[in-house]
Amino acid sequence: MQDAALHIGLIGMGTVGTQVADRLLNRRDTLRRRAGVELLLKRALVRDVDRQRGIEVPAGVLTTDPSALLDNPEIDVVVEVAGGDEPARSYLERAIRSGKHVVTANKVVMAKHGPELLELAGEMNVDVYFEAAVGGGIPLISTFKVDLLANEIQRIMAVINGTTNYVLGRMANQGLDLREAVLEAQTAGYAEADPTEDVGGFDAAYKLAIMASIGFGARVHPDQVYREGIEGIEPVDFRYARELGYDVKLLAYAARDGEGQIEARVHPVLLPHGHPLAAVEGPANAVYIEGDLVGPVLLQGLGAGGRPTASSVVGDIIDLARSIHRQVQNRAAFEFDPDVRVMSMDEVRSRAYFRCHVADRPGVLAKICTVFGEEGVSIASAIQKESDDVSAEFVVTTHPAADAALRRTRARIARLDVVDAVDSFLRVL
Amino acid sequence: MQDAALHIGLIGMGTVGTQVADRLLNRRDTLRRRAGVELLLKRALVRDVDRQRGIEVPAGVLTTDPSALLDNPEIDVVVEVAGGDEPARSYLERAIRSGKHVVTANKVVMAKHGPELLELAGEMNVDVYFEAAVGGGIPLISTFKVDLLANEIQRIMAVINGTTNYVLGRMANQGLDLREAVLEAQTAGYAEADPTEDVGGFDAAYKLAIMASIGFGARVHPDQVYREGIEGIEPVDFRYARELGYDVKLLAYAARDGEGQIEARVHPVLLPHGHPLAAVEGPANAVYIEGDLVGPVLLQGLGAGGRPTASSVVGDIIDLARSIHRQVQNRAAFEFDPDVRVMSMDEVRSRAYFRCHVADRPGVLAKICTVFGEEGVSIASAIQKESDDVSAEFVVTTHPAADAALRRTRARIARLDVVDAVDSFLRVL
Fold first, then answer.
1. Of A6, A132, B61, B363, which has the maximum CB count within 10 A?
2. B150 touches chain A (CB under 8 A)
3. The model's pTM
4. Do A290 and A154 meet the contact criterion of CB atoms below 8 Å apart?
5. What is the CATH number that goes with domain A141-302?
6. Chain A within 8 Å of B222 (Cβ-Cβ)?
7. What's the CATH class of domain A5-136+308-333?
8. What is the CATH number of domain A349-428?
C-alpha cells in the first residue's frame, strides 16, 4: 500500500471493464471523497492495446502482460471483469497469493472455486469482493452479508437470467417459437451468438450456487444444482399455462429445511399470476428471499450489462478501500454537500388531477378553462359527468406545471361562482 | 470494550425491543459466529420491569433507570427502539458523548437530528447505525451506503407507509370511505389509535428526509419535505383514476438535478397502472431508486412490524461488532457449515405439468391415469382438447410428489402405445 491511494489493476476491458475504467478515471474527486482514499487505475490487462474503447486511458495503463498486474508490488487490488473459468481463476489465485485484494464480477469462478479462494484469502489476510458476480446491479451480496445477518434464510427464488426471461416473454406475448424468440433476443443484444449458457440454465445455476452458498452458509457447488433449460417449451404451453392461471419463467430455487438439508434447482416453472416474480419482465432480474425474522424481501434491477455491473464492481472497490483504510468508518458513508439547495414546492413541476362540482349550464367549462389558460396550465384530459339535475362533476388532468401555478389555479377555480367546490386535487406521476 | 464480547444496552422493550432481545438471548451461538464476538444483552431500559413480555429475560437485565445504560462503562453499544423525539434524542446524544456506539430504529430522531448525531459520533470516534429507521426490514441504508456508492442517485420514489397503503387499497377495492378504511386498518393492527402520523404523511416525510439525505449526500430536514396526507381523497377519485389508467398511492418522491437542486415531497399521487410501485399492496413497502450507473433498482419488503424491524436492528449490531473487532473482515461474512447436505433432485418434491399427445379413442385416459396412480402421483387438474382426427392433446397438473416419481411417470407414459409423445414436462410452483 502506497500513501493514501488504492492502486488498482484491472483484468478485462470489455463492456464492463470499460465502464469501470470510465468511472474510476472520470469521477476521481467523488470517488476519493467516498472511499477516503484516491482510487488509482494503474494497469489494465487487455488482449489488444490498440483497440478503440470509446474512453481515454492514460498512456502506460494498458498492457497485455498479466505479470504487469499480478507480480507488481504497487498494485493493491486486482479487479477482474474478464469472465470465464480459466485463466481468470489462476489470475485471481496468483493475485491473492501475492497479498492483493480481489474484486471480481466472475460468476463461473465464484460458483466453482469461491470457497477455495475465500479460504486462501483468509490465509493471506486479504479480502475478496464479488457483488457483481450475481445479478449485475442488484444489491444481493451486501443484503446477505449485512442486512439479513440476523436471519436464518429459508428460501431463495430468483428470475436471474435476463436472456431467457426476455425469450419467454416474447414466446408468451407474441406466440413466437423458441428459435424465433432467441433470434430476436440476439438482434436486441440480449443473447449471445451461442445462447447455450443462458438457454440451458447454466448461467442461472452458477448464480444460484453463489446465492445458496452465502444465504444458507453452506457450500453449494454448481454441479449440485439440478439444471434444466427452456429448450423443451413450446408456444402452446403458454396458452395452457394462462388458462390454468400461471406464467412460465426460468426459476432458480433454493431452500433449506430445519435439518440442514438444501435443495437447489434451476428449471422452467409455472408461476401463479400475481406471484412477485411473475411480473418480472424482459431483461430485468429479481430475487425473492425469505428470512425467519425479516419475512419476504424482493430485490429487483438490471441483472446484466456494462453499467449496472460496473456499478457493483466500483461499489465493491469503494467498500474495500474503506475497509482497508480504517480511518473511514460507517458514519463517513454520509457525506453532506452544503451547496445543495432543497427546492420549495412552488417551483416543483408536476402534472395534476382536479375534480370539481360545477353548475350544469352553458359557459361553465369555458370559465374554468380560462383560469387554467391564464395560469399557463395546459389541460391534458377532461371528463364531465352529470351528477344531478343542477350540478355536474368535472375532472381534468393537466400537463406538467409549477406547483404554485397548479395551486393558484385550484384556488381561483374554487372561487368561481359556477363552481361548488374543488373536491379533489392530486398530483399525477 | 471488555474481552471478546459486545455489551449491549437496549432502550425500549415494546414490539421491536422484545424481538431484538429474543434474538440476542436465544440465538447466541449463531450470532457469535457471525459477529466474531459474543453479543451480550446487559441492560434493557423499560417503563415497567414487571410487565409480561412473552420472553424470559435474565434477572438484573431490566431497569427503569436510564443511567444504568447511559452512564455504565460496561456498555459498548446503546440500541434504541423506543421511538419518538424526546427523550430518545437526549439518550442517544448522552450515549455518544460517553463513547458508546449507537444502533437506532428511530426515524423521527434520525430525520430531525441525524446529521448532528453523526457529526458528534465522528468527534467521539464512535459509530451510528440506523438501517431500521427507514422501511423496517427493507435493506435500504446498506444499499445506499455500499452498493450504490459508485452512483449519482437521481431519483427516489417510495411507497413507504404501510398504513396508508392498506387504507388506500381498501378504498380502491371495497369502495370504503377514508373513515371506514382507517377503522378497518386499526382493527387489523395496521393503524394506531391516533392515525394522524400515518394518514397525514408525517411518517413518510421522516423516512423520505433520511433517504434523501443519504441518497443525495445533502441535509434534507423533514421540515423541508413538502407534505400532504390522504385526508382529501374520496371513493369517487379511485373510479376516475382507474378510468384514466391510474392507481392512487401515497408517494414519497425525491429527485436531485444536475445543478445540485433537490425536490422532496410526500403527497397522494396518481401512478400509471404498470408502474413498479403501483403493484405494492397492503402493508408492504417498496423503494424505487435510480442511479446514473446502475439504472433502476427496486427494493420491497415489510416496512414495519416487530420482526422485520428487529431483523434490521440485529443486522446492524452484528455489522457494528464486526467493524469494531477488526479481526473479522469481509470474507468472514461467509461461514460454510460442513454438516449441510445438498439434496438430490430425486428427493425434491414439487407439483408438475404434463402435456402429451394421445390417441383419441376410449380407454386412453384410463391407461395414463393408472400410471400416475401406480407412481403415487396425484392429479390436480386435467384438460383434454382435440387436436386432429386421430390424436388429442392431454394436459395434467399434479399435486406435490417426489421428482423421481414425476420423472418415472413421464418416462412410463411416453412408452404407452396410446401416447405419441410427452411434449412438455414443467414443474409448478
1. A132
2. yes
3. 0.90
4. yes
5. 3.30.360.10
6. no
7. alpha beta
8. 3.30.70.260
